Amino acid sequence: MCGILCCIIRSSDQKSIDDIISRLQSLQDDLERRGPDSHNAILCPLGENLWLFMYSTVLWLQGSHVCSQPLKDEKENLLQWNGDIYYANLHLHPWEGLELSKSDIEELSFRVEEKCIPQHIKNDLNRDIPMPERLPTIHPSDVVFSQLLADPLFISAVENLETLLKMAVSVRARTHPGVCKNCLELQECTHTKVAILFSGGVDSGVLASLCHEFVGNNETIDLINVAFHQKNSDEANAVPDRITGLSCFQELEKIHPGRWNFVKVDVDKERLVDKRKSHVRHLIYPCNTVLDDGIGCALWFAGLGEGVLLNGESYKSPARVLMVGMGADEQLCGYSRHRERFKSDGWLGAIQEIENQVTGMWKRNMGRDDRILSDHGRQARFPYLDSRVVSFLHSLPVWVKADFRQPRGIGEKMILRLLAHRLGLHSTARLPKRAIQFGSRIAKLEDRKEKGSDACPRL
User: Which residue stretches, if any, does this entry annotate as coiled coil (predicted)?
Assistant: First the structure.
């Protein structure tokens, strides 16, 4: 993700202007971590004693070459751009007629609305929806999954979700220059270009399975798995996310052998404390809770992608694209809060909780998480937040997304579990949701009596 700094300076003295720009240097250094491929500054007058200072850094992922910023046209208009463009040709005034992005995917609206869903996907969604009492109430999960995957309604919903997720993964896995972080000056590169934040849960497992289809046959995909421990590094192997990660990796390896690098990122408490104090807490700011601390630090070390492969070889992922499974829990009732609302307020309560969670994603996933992951010069991409996927999931009845009468590991995110089962990830499809701060065991390294909503004294 590119970096942008824009500052209006009021001064009549050049020395004062230079001093202010010098004091912004630490911000410029941080932005260069986000955009390591190009950086440039512009200082231009706005009026009497007013100056505009703009500084941009670029992470090159689209286009045939690095495009330095800020952009300036013959009319002195300035542009700083930060973000990805998918599915569309974008025209911006006053550069009307200048194509800033090209795509061979059909042109779509950027708005999240019904027309984002291809017509063939909507056909089966207009018929009567069964009431929840018609859904199977028996388990184990294999029986529930088999019954639901024989129902025409669920078959249609799962197939349509698979189609849309493939489109979302495809454009995100393929939109890059074709070289890794280490080969920017070369014409060809066979190193890993796509990595996945990988707990081994159903969200990341499905993304990994779908990514296989859209990455070059001669390239590996990095599965980055983070675990926190005290001084004894052997403790990392007993961390829940390490156990589930290896389990899902084994399923993926059976289906698509030779494709995967399982990257073990092991972090002890001393290193956690040091990096948080010196750097990570500044990225988490202005978020300040215990929950922000746990998630933020776990994501930063995972995004670093530096660890050990299963054969014991030291490894740092060269991937510039980082697939992230965030957004699935919010939309598909993955949190315990969804189940609690269902118990207290029924299906309407679950629907309201989905809305509450989704409306908060801009601050979490698009704010805190993006700041942290981008710090490593990688582009975090969120297929579950693709506009088509969001629109489709919004169109489904809540009891197609989840069935809270089923136990954990079946009822929440049920449609995604059905897709995982359909893709051959049978064990992964049954794993209960475990938040990253608990699954990675970072929460156990600190004060265990703290609540997630408490202000964190370490930030």
Answer: none
